[in-house]
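We emphasize that the prediction below concerns an isolated chain of 196 residues; any contacts that depend on oligomerization or on bound cofactors are therefore not represented. The input was used exactly as deposited, without trimming of termini.
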Amino acid sequence: MATAPGQPIFYYDLGSPGCYLVAERIMSELPVVAEWEPVLAAQLGWEEPAPVPDELARAVAGQGLQVLRLPPTWPPDTEAAMLAATYAKQIGRAVAYSLAAFRQAFAGGRDLGDESSVLIAAAACEMHPTAVLKGIAMRSVAAALEQAGRRALAAGVRRLPAIQVGERVFEGAGAPERAAAALGRAIGSDGNREGP
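Result of the prediction step, given as a token string:
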């Protein structure tokens, strides 16, 4: 699926609490819809530090999200969930599936390395379990996930969450606000559209 010209790209890993926090607010922060691009953090050579539960719980509460429940293992094994997210993207359900998976992990405390957690998230957005399991096993889906990682690296992404706006990459917790400011300037300077 090609990104529309000027469309921002949100790079994320489902095992990242930082990506979860950004995912829950990106649609309300950005003035345009972002493309959601699942990327394995390990492919970037980046590993998110273990979360500090109290700090993360405060951040979750500050966004008005459900009470934080961390998955039982750290770091989580998200490869199957990320393959499912890549498959979901191919069928137009990346956002719905990814939000459901994030919520399974960080509001439900479920291990995304467990196939049942992946299938529960898929069921929440009406993806049939048999289709999801077949999708996860497809070489083309694995290749698409790997290509997404290569594109992220080529764009300059070094850690997640990240949002790409044109040639610029904004990383970390404040990425949506910085990307929104950049998009606002771009929209405002476009003679065909008014600024926000």
